[in-house]
């Protein structure tokens, strides 16, 4: 592709990214190679420089770690007070995100980018706070060490033997507008450490022997330099695309190797790998798929596919481009991705081949690549694979059949020419031959079409030019006519053949795209793992017209999870091949290079996290997959692996949620038990001790009061234990209502009488409409519900206030309200108060409950088919717990029934 032919417009994606950044703040990251290199110091120095330029600079959070030099730089800069967060009885200081956004400075300093916030903050991680600040249009200066990068977590652990817990995604570093690398030689950093400028002396000695060894620091330094260079390089490429700079700018080596069907493709890939390794440069293997791809033999196409797979295995990238001009596509990709060197194979084209087909791809690349270095790889042409006898015989039969049909077509055109010759002049006869050549090119391909062109030329000359039935030509005008006819026939045959191949290539690509789209639609609609597995095996079996199955690991073994048609077991050979595929993440089995005696071919299902399973396929009457089928199956396997991993992640997230909820409940239960068991026990022990130690000094009234205290606290303890038992029964499903028809007034009055000691400091009012009919409930359990509600109302309302129990019939339900005149329940907590061990945060004057009473009430009410909810009291004062119980139709009580009773 010539430079003048390239599209010199800026990249739309790059322009869109720049436009998006215009509305956001700029992020500058001070990237440290190791702790103590001075990244926070450098950040503060940059802040002072901005302040001298009259820029509004604010410190959001800066960690000085007690370093005197850093503390001096904090002075003179405005600092925003940190907010306090109470967590598990301890107070922590965190950056005040809301205050920063309200203050809206020009630049804000946010240290320790990988910091994890205290639970209860808006975001889990500090880098997420930074995202909000940037979205508000505020520029951010931040600092982080290279070991906190997520992709390097395992590498750092292997090098230093330390697991870094706080990490940031790589995307945070890649989207930064500016990166400033802060680096020190290992010897200088160790000297700073020894001088106490990084850690206190004792901590510094431990650090030198563990993390801060010269080898560790050198490795971290190299990683920091490499990542900073990669980020700067990516910024340069984006700048070139946004400003339509054709490049290349050879700031960093990038190798592009051109894969073709000439010189051995695998050899080119290996040479490119060695060149890239020597220069520490990224590299990519490119194959341009033209219409000629369909005319290649299966072995040639397989060789190209193997070369692309080899490139990926050797650590390079592999790309397949679509187009008709190989050189244009290659150079376009090289310019777009700022490649600096092309690796191509030498191609030789001599004699009539060069005259007809022109210069080779290699010649054209060399002629048009003034901006690139070209490494030309010599050597012999790739050996053409010897086809098997059956395949060779079939291909020869097809060739002879094509030429035979071409001969018949020319004969038919000759016969039509005799009919045309009866009414029309000589030039019109050539049309019949041109039509025949076009049809032959369309149906049989280029070879038979060119043969038909020459045959038509000879037939036209022999039968229709003077003198007829000889190959001599007497009229010079006829010479020009038949020569132009031959040229036109050859051109038409080539054009029609090429169009036919392009149409077939488009159809093949369309079928592949439709197959992948249908597959992605199926697995996207699958909600469970079983649905995903069934969709995968069914679609793969339909694609290959054979059988398929999926094996997943279970207790250290691979087991069949799904199959179509259903498969229950596989042979020992197939099981061995499947195990090998699972262990090595490479294909094995029939048609592969590993364990080819197996009946099934197994492909690994793997994602970025690792292998998730194995896909097995069995083709009917076919030993080998074509390259197209192989690439399609690999793509299907990749999508299937992602879908299976998605369902596994959903299960993992649900399990983690359940585990977190279980831990929360366990902690809440232990906290509740430790408090609510200790409080009554302390009162009982205190009263009993007084009765024993001061029995002679206590008058009867005091002894009665102490005995009453023991009874009240024992009853409180008994209620708590009963609540725990009831909650256990509800959780296990063992608490089943023994329902019978009962009068609601009797149940409520029994609960009020039972709670006499609880309401002695309150006023109780029972207002139940006499028209409320009988309800079918378990009287004992419902009495417990009302007792818990009365207990709750008395506990959270001031002494002397009114506790009201109100009931009416409404729409086939009995609606009961238990209202108090306490502080009320916040709107956000009205639903959560019915959760186990959940308690609204109480003031100092409020009693702390166990968080079980309302949860038990909800369990019992819902077991009766009713509902329970919390609503604000009259005029917004206090709380009303509203119950709704179905009334139903009680049985008729006849006189005989009463007498019998």
Describe this structure in words.
Helix content is 51%, strand content 16%. It is of the alpha/beta class and 901 residues long. The strands form 6 sheets. A 6-stranded parallel sheet has the order 3-2-6-7-1-8, with helices on both faces. Strands 11-10-9-12-13 form a 5-stranded parallel sheet, sandwiched between helices. A 5-stranded antiparallel sheet has the order 15-14-18-17-16, with helices on both faces.
How do you describe this structure in short?
This protein is α/β, with parallel strands linked by helices.
> Structural class of the helix and strand makeup?
alpha/beta
Rg, alpha carbons: 42 Å
Strand order of the largest sheet: 3-2-6-7-1-8
| Count of helical regions | 27
How much of the sequence is in beta strands?
A: 15-25%
> Which spans of ≥5 residues are poorly predicted at pLDDT below 50?
1-7, 351-356, 380-396, 893-901
The number of distinct β-strands equals 25
Mean pLDDT: 77
Question: What is the terminal separation in angstroms?
Answer: 106 Å
Estimated helix fraction = 40-55%
Task: Characterize the overall form.
Answer: elongated
In quaternary terms, these chains amount to single chain
For the biggest sheet, the summary is: 6 strands, parallel
What is this structure's SSE topology?
Elements: H1 12-22, E1 27-32, H2 39-52, E2 57-61, H3 68-74, E3 78-79, E4 83-87, E5 90-94, H4 97-103, E6 107-110, H5 126-135, E7 139-145, H6 153-160, H7 170-174, E8 178-182, H8 186-194, H9 201-209, H10 214-242, E9 255-259, H11 265-279, E10 283-289, H12 298-313, E11 317-322, H13 326-336, E12 341-345, H14 351-357, H15 361-368, E13 373-377, H16 389-421, H17 429-444, H18 446-464, H19 476-525, H20 529-544, E14 546-554, E15 557-564, H21 572-584, E16 588-589, E17 601-607, E18 610-619, H22 627-693, H23 700-732, E19 740-742, H24 744-754, E20 763-768, E21 775-777, H25 779-795, E22 802-810, E23 813-819, H26 853-863, E24 867-872, E25 879-886, H27 895-900
Parallel strand pairs: 1-7, 1-8, 2-3, 2-6, 6-7, 9-10, 9-12, 10-11, 12-13, 20-22
Antiparallel strand pairs: 4-5, 14-15, 14-18, 16-17, 17-18, 19-21, 22-23, 23-25, 24-25
């Amino acid at each position: 592709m010539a430079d003048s032919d390239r599209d010199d417009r800026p990249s739309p994606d790059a322009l869109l990214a720049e436009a998006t950044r215009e509305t956001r703040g700029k992020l500058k990251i001070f990237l440290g190679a190791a702790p103590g290199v001075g990244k926070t110091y450098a950040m503060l120095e940059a802040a002072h420089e901005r302040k001298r330029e009259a820029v509004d600079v604010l410190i959001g959070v800066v960690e000085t770690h007690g370093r005197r030099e850093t503390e001096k730089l904090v002075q003179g800069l405005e600092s925003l007070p940190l907010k306090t967060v109470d967590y598990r009885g301890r107070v922590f200081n965190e950056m005040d995100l809301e205050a920063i956004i309200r203050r809206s400075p020009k630049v804000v300093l946010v240290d320790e980018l990988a910091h994890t916030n205290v639970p209860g903050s808006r975001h889990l991680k500090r880098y997420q706070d930074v995202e909000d600040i940037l979205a508000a249009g505020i520029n951010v200066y931040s600092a982080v060490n290279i070991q906190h990068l997520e992709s390097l977590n395992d590498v750092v652990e292997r090098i230093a033997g330390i697991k870094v817990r706080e990490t940031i995604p790589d995307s945070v570093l890649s989207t930064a507008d500016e990166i400033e690398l802060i680096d020190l030689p290992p010897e200088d950093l160790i000297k700073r450490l020894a001088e106490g400028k990084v850690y206190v002396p004792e901590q510094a000695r431990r650090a030198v022997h563990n993390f801060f060894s010269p080898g560790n620091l050198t490795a971290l330094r190299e990683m920091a330099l490499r990542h900073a260079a990669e980020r700067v390089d990516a910024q340069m490429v984006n700048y070139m695309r946004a400003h339509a700079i054709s490049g290349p700018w050879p700031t960093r080596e990038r190798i592009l190797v051109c894969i073709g069907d000439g010189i051995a493709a695998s050899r080119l890939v290996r040479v490119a790998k060695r060149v890239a390794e020597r220069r520490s440069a990224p590299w990519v293997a490119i194959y341009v798929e033209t219409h000629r791809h369909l005319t290649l033999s299966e072995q040639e196409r397989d060789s190209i596919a193997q070369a692309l797979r080899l490139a990926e295995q050797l650590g390079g990238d592999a790309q397949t481009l679509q187009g008709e001009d190989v050189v244009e596509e290659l150079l376009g990709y090289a310019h777009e991705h700022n490649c600096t060197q092309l690796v191509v194979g030498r191609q030789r084209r001599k004699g009539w081949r060069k005259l007809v087909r022109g210069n080779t791809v290699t010649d054209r690349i060399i002629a048009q690549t003034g901006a690139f270095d070209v490494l030309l790889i010599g050597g012999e042409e790739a050996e053409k694979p010897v086809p098997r006898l059956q395949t060779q015989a079939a291909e020869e039969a097809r060739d002879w059949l094509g030429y035979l049909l071409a001969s018949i077509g020319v004969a038919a055109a000759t016969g039509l020419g005799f009919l045309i010759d009866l009414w029309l002049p000589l030039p019109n006869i050539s049309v019949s031959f041109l039509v025949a050549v076009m049809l032959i090119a369309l149906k049989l391909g280029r070879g038979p079409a060119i043969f038909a062109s020459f045959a038509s030329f000879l037939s036209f000359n022999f039968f229709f030019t003077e003198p007829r039935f000889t190959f001599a030509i007497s009229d010079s005008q006829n010479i020009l006519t038949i020569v132009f006819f031959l040229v036109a026939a050859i051109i038409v045959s080539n054009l029609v053949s090429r169009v036919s191949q392009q149409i077939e290539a488009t159809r093949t690509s369309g079928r592949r795209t439709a197959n992948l789209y249908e597959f992605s639609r199926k697995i996207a609609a699958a909600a469970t793992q079983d649905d995903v597995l069934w969709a995968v095996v069914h679609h793969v079996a339909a694609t290959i017209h054979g059988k398929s199955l999926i094996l997943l690991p279970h207790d250290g073994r691979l087991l069949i999870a799904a199959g179509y048609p259903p498969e229950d077991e596989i042979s020992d050979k197939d099981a061995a091949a499947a195990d090998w595929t699972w262990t090595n993440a490479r294909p094995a089995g029939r048609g592969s290079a590993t364990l080819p005696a197996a009946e099934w071919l197994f492909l690994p299902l793997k994602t970025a996290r690792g292998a998730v399973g194995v896909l097995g396929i069995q083709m009917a009457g076919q030993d080998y997959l074509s390259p197209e089928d192989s690439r399609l199956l690999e793509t299907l396997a990749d999508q299937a692996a992602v879908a299976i991993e998605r369902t596994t992640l959903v299960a993992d997230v649900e399990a983690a949620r359940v585990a977190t909820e279980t831990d929360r409940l366990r902690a809440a239960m232990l906290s509740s038990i430790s408090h609510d068991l200790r409080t009554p026990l302390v009162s009982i022990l205190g009263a009993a001790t007084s009765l024993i130690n001061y029995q002679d000094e206590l008058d009867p009234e005091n002894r009665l009061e102490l005995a009453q205290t023991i009874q009240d606290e024992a009853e409180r303890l008994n209620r708590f234990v009963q609540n725990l038992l009831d909650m256990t029964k509800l959780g296990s499903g063992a608490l089943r209502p023994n329902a019978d028809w009962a009068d609601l007034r009797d149940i409520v009055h029994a609960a009020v009488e039972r709670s006499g000691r609880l309401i002695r400091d309150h006023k109780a009012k029972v207002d139940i409409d006499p028209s409320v009919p009988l309800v079918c409930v378990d009287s004992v359990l419902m009495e417990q519900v009302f007792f818990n509600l009365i207990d709750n109302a008395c506990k959270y309302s001031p002494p002397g206030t009114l506790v009201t129990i109100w009931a009416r019939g409404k729409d086939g339900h009995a609606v009961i309200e238990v209202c108090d005149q306490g502080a009320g329940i916040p709107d956000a907590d009205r639903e959560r108060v019915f959760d186990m061990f959940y308690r609204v945060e109480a003031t100092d004057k409020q009693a702390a409950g166990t968080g079980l009473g309302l949860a038990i009430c909800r369990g019992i009410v819902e077991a009766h088919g009713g509902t329970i909810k919390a609503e604000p009291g009259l005029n917004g004062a206090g709380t009303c717990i509203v119950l709704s119980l179905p009334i139903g139709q009680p049985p008729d009580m006849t006189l005989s029934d009463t007498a019998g009773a």
